[in-house]
Design goal:
The protein has three helices and six strands. It has 161 residues and is α+β, with helices and mostly antiparallel strands. Strand 5 and strand 6 form a beta hairpin. Helix 1 runs antiparallel to helix 2. The chain is elongated, with a radius of gyration of 21 Å.
Length: 161
């Protein structure tokens, strides 16, 4: 399987790009909220106030992403073998419903992002997600079923590293 350091680096690059975009949006919103043209025209005009709330929310999201980046930078990347059980920072290949293979990288936070490494698509999932919880403690060859949003799926662990 693919080197987990490469996967983590790709995930960090993606999050850093996201943080840069979010910061730019927050600065643009803040600038618009404090611009002279944003002054209220009357007592019921709350456009500037609403824009300042939006800018603060965007700035908080930037802080959250930067905190996530810091956490992932220091993520320990243990090696797992075929006889080990799935744990944090595991790279797991699963077969879903007997049809498709998916590569999942278990992270403490920041799940939901997909990265391309060595020509493979790898999805980061959190340990707290339903699939992450289903994988923890399982071994290669184990299977489990999950019902998510009313749809039942069967997962079979094909490989682990």
């Amino acid at each position: 399987m693919t080197d987990k350091r490469l996967i983590l680096d790709a995930l960090l690059n993606r999050l850093e790009a996201e943080a840069t975009e979010l910061l730019s949006a927050a600065e643009t919103t803040r600038s618009g909220a404090t611009h002279a043209e944003a002054r209220p025209e009357n007592s019921k005009d709350t456009r500037a106030l609403e824009a300042s709330y939006l800018a603060r929310g965007q700035a908080q999201r930037v802080e959250e992403v930067n905190e996530l980046i810091t956490r992932l930078r220091f993520l320990d990347l243990p090696s797992y073998g075929e006889d080990d059980v799935v744990g944090p920072a595991a790279l797991v290949e699963v077969e879903i419903d007997g049809e498709r293979l998916e590569r999942l990288f278990l992270v403490p936070a920041g799940g939901g992002h997909t990265v391309e490494v060595d020509g493979l698509t790898i999805r980061a999932i959190t340990i707290a997600s339903p699939v992450g919880r289903g994988l923890l403690g399982k071994e290669v060859g184990d299977d489990f079923k999950l019902t998510i949003r009313g749809k039942s799926r069967e997962y079979v662990i094909e490989s682990l590293s």
